[in-house]
Amino acid sequence: MGRYLDDLETQSMQMRAERQSRLLADMVRRGYERSHRVRAIFDESGLSPADIRSVSDLERLPVINRERIVRMEEEEPPYGGLADVSARIERIFTSPGPVYEPHLNSDDPLWARAYKAAGFGPGDIVLNAFSYHMVAAGLTFHGGLVRVGATVVPSGTSPAHQQVQLIKDLKVTGYTGTPSFLMAIIDKANEMGYDFARDFSLRRAAFAAEPLQPSLRGRFERDFGIDTYQMYGATEVGDVAYECREKNGWHLCEEVIVEIVDPETGKPLGPGELGEVVVTRLNPIFFLFRFGTGDLSRLTDAPCPCGRTSLRLEGIAGRVGEAVKVRGMFVAPSQVKRLTDMFPGIVVQLVVSRSGTRDVLTARIDASGAGPASTGLAERFEKAFQEVCTVRLDRLELVEPGTLAADAKPLLDERTWE
């Protein structure tokens, strides 16, 4: 496995472009043959499969964002017509929207490159604190760890005190999950009377799903002796980029084609220019071309001392549009609309803030138009919110009637990042 990864990660840029272009052309051909949605997209763009022969040809296709995928899947469940339904699909994952994602057991080293770059390998016992329930995270991160030879503890989202017990009893050496949850585990260990750096063996962590604040990284590495790494991906396309030992940008995975584009036009931008991260995963059964992540970043082509030759993302600089990520899960305006449809007469505004290292999600509800239906609204709304958005509410505020206008912005992100 190590040789397989290294051969691709150290190839020349020309060899990488030629390989990806071959795989892309094959994906285009298969998609056009097996997906009427792909055929429609090509036909509407005035294209044939022969027109997409290289990575540079991708700009001729439209960017497809998450909201459009949701609409496609609403029109044609479960995959919006983007999948090869004749293929054997091993797993079906969900993400908020809902979006249904078909997966198969292939040779795609999903997340393995990231864990290898972070130093995980044989002899490591790794706590996987990503959810295994319905969403792709738990199992796909699990698979990446297994590929690099690590032993996985599938702790998922168990309470912090149980995670502390597992780390202690199993002599866990590594962690993968969100940085805020690792901090919560460390705080719980301190409450239980432990000295985390002295009493535990955890010395390496790979994070995804939320930003790693520089101040928090400093605490992990300085106070607790934990070597930290960041991984970047999206549920629709899997792993996209990862940090190496240099921690100076995120190397692009070899299984994805990444473009930085003008959010308004979809046209590719050059190295160093800020734009939207657009990803095409080279996938034999799910033909999602040019997925717009909504994240803003830049590419750098500066050589990396680690020896990997891929381009690197310079971190995430913000978001395009109004969808926001809360504790690793997207919350989108379409979900807010669905909730208001379920409770006629109310106006909802979701506010995302920070408390220490944790995201705080507040729902502000103006029920002035709900009439008698406002009785017991808070309890019913919280239950519906959990079902529609997956992520839990932290607060629910019933504001004074007339506080929120009917056209109030559905999502406010008030977080600031150090």
Which tags fit this structure?
GMP Synthetase, Chain A, domain 3; alpha/beta; 5-stranded mixed β-sheet; 418 residues
Quick overview:
By secondary structure, this protein is an alpha/beta fold.
Q: What sort of overall outline do the alpha carbons produce when their principal axes are compared? A: globular
Number of E-type strands: 22
Work out the strand percent: 15-25%
Order of strands in the sheet with most strands: 5-4-6-7-8-9-10-15-14
Unreliable spans:
none
* CATH evolutionary superfamily of the domain at 326-413: ANL, C-terminal domain
Q: Whole-Å distance between the termini?
A: 37 Å
**CATH class type of the domain at 326-413:** Alpha Beta
Percent of residues in helical segments? 25-40%
What is the CATH architecture term of the domain at 326-413? 2-Layer Sandwich
Task: Let me know the average pLDDT.
Answer: 92
CATH domain topology of the domain at 326-413: GMP Synthetase, Chain A, domain 3
Number of helices: 12
Report on the biggest sheet: 9 strands, mixed
Structural class comes to alpha/beta
List the helices and strands and how they pair.
Layout: H1 2-9, H2 13-34, H3 36-44, E1 64-65, H4 66-75, E2 91-95, E3 99-103, H5 112-117, E4 125-128, H6 137-147, E5 151-153, H7 160-169, E6 174-177, H8 179-191, H9 196-199, E7 204-207, H10 214-223, E8 227-234, E9 238-242, E10 250-252, E11 256-261, E12 275-281, E13 291-297, E14 299-300, E15 312-313, E16 318-319, E17 324-326, E18 329-331, H11 333-342, E19 347-355, E20 358-366, H12 377-389, E21 395-398, E22 411-413
Helix pairs in contact: 2-3, 7-8, 11-12
